[in-house]
Amino acid sequence: MTTETPPAAPAGTRRRVLRAGVSVLFYGAIALAAWFLWPTSLGGCTTMTVVSGHSMEPTFYTGDIVLARCGQPAVGDIVVYSPPGIGGDARIIHRIVDGTPDGWTLQGDNNDFIDAFTPTDADVVGIAKIRIPKLALLGSALTSPYVWCGMIALSLALLMWPRNDDEDAAPVSGGSAEAPEDEAPADPVEQPDSLALPSQKQDEPELGATDPDALQEAARS
């Protein structure tokens, strides 16, 4: 009994399947990022807090960004909470050291005293999950007018800087070079006798030739 190998799928079909798989992964990653980063102000569960101060060192430093997620806090968690009785957008990020959901006791890792506020679960915005070090400092630098003025000044300096173009370089031409006018012409080359024209050879006597008649006339004389 022989088994036949099924024919391979065409190349166009494989490319379409590959593109579809890449698209599914891409949109899935976007959906996951949106779910994780959706802020609490829009009904999500993520809060982004910029650390300011030294109360949480060495855990967090000024300029760090902390992403906090909603959940049930417990003793030992670092949480972001809104101080009770204080309006506005004031928030504190400290560690829970004691208490219950009806009233938590918090303290900064670098503080030797506890917080004056006793927030409840309703006051806790989120539990710290991810720390992005010094990212806020980069954002502050990019929005600083001094940084932008320096970048503009540097760009203008690069545009106005003189270029080192070699203008004195002689152009290269494809033709033959002409001889200088003040150069003396070369002396003509003398041709040897063997290269003389036939007319010149006939006028010159041949050396070493003997004429019998001439010899007889010389003997009679």
Task: Offer a concise description of the structure.
With 221 residues, the protein is of the alpha+beta class. The protein is built from five helices and six strands.
Question: What would your notes on this structure say?
Answer:
The chain is an alpha+beta fold. It is 30% helix and 17% strand. The protein contains five helices and six strands; from the N terminus they run αββββββαααα. Strands 1-2-6-3-4-5 form a six-stranded antiparallel sheet, with no helix packed on it. Mean pLDDT is 74; it is low at 201-209.
Largest sheet: 6 strands, antiparallel
Strand order of the largest sheet: 1-2-6-3-4-5
Q: In whole angstroms, how far apart are the ends?
A: 133 Å
Percent in strands: 15-25%
Any key phrases for this structure?
221 residues; alpha+beta; six-stranded antiparallel β-sheet; 5 helices; 6 strands; 30% helix
Question: What is the secondary structure topology, with strand pairs?
Answer:
Blueprint: H1 11-37, E1 46-50, E2 65-69, E3 78-81, E4 92-100, E5 103-107, E6 124-132, H2 135-142, H3 145-160, H4 198-203, H5 212-220
Antiparallel strand pairs: 1-2, 2-6, 3-4, 3-6, 4-5
